[in-house]
């Protein structure tokens, strides 16, 4: 079989699930590396450049934290320092996994560039932020655009900006920005619409509970999968409850790698593993009754029996009417040397 396996880029989204603790961030890197993810992704932001004092938390954030606080108050506790970034990058190299981070403000975008970033992720909330889009286009060699809460028109407008200011390769992630996303709101088929309309590679950023949907997305053609994970779903913080735990992350990565192999190619032919079963499972033309030398074979004289290493039943017309060259017993598996 002539098949070429395409590897899905798997991003293990640690996000802010480190709770502002560098030791916990390193444990998240351990878990992502152990699971076999390609990237472990954090979030880079200057809180005062991201939200105003008046910005309230999302409903899911308030429920998960159990606190009445502003976004500013919540995010300040989750902000990674610049020195923490250097430490985490060094630790990722030690653990043989790629470091990745999403910047949420212009200053943070420039900081990621100073860290050597070439791949940039545009989060769903920034898809309508024109100055941000222009800055990403200026800095990036490769762009991943997330599209939660977006219309097709908004996706098109963002792509127009990026393409006008950059020649970077762009992958668009279908996404739903609800934590957790109800299954009825996932709408995986939108990936096909995005791919067809905008002529881009597509992927999927998942916020559902469990691992079924990202696995299905790969089967439907996603080239990038992003999924939040945590050390413990019961930890305090806005995103833990809708994240995978390490054992689930490992299972998701393993399942995606299996699906990649299973997708194969568009060529239908016997695979190496099943070829040995052809003669076992198929049938050949056999005599149902004995025939004397010189007698002609009639269709009613025949039966189709395993194994399938003789004359195929599909060649029945090449047998009927032929005269046998010698006496043959009932049950004989016919071959072309039996005929005159």
Structure notes:
This protein is an alpha/beta fold and about 350 residues long. The chain has 2 domains: about 10-265, TIM Barrel, CATH 3.20.20; about 275-340, Antifreeze-like/N-acetylneuraminic acid synthase C-terminal domain (Type Iii Antifreeze Protein Isoform Hplc 12, Alpha-Beta Complex). The protein is built from 13 helices and 10 strands. It has helices spanning about 20-35, 45-50, 60-65, 70-75, 80-95, 105-115, 130-140, 150-165, 190-200, 210-220, 245-265, 270-275, 280, and strands at about 10-15, 40-45, 100-105, 120, 140-145, 170-175, 200-205, 225-230, 285, 300-305. It has an 8-stranded parallel sheet with strand order 3-2-1-8-7-6-5-4. Helix 1 (about 20-35) packs parallel to helix 11 (about 245-265), helix 7 (about 130-140) crosses helix 8 and helix 10 runs parallel beside helix 11 (about 245-265). The two termini are about 40 Å apart. The model has no long low-confidence stretch (mean pLDDT about 95).
Radius of gyration: 30 Å
Number of helical regions = 13
Helix content: 25-40%
Termini Cα gap = 39 Å
User: What is the domain tally?
Assistant: 2
User: Within the CATH hierarchy, at the fold level, what is the topology of the largest domain?
Assistant: TIM Barrel
- Tell me how many strands there are: 10
The largest sheet has its strands arranged as 3-2-1-8-7-6-5-4
Instruction: Describe the global form.
Output: elongated
- The average pLDDT value, as a whole number, equals 94
CATH superfamily of the largest domain: Aldolase class I
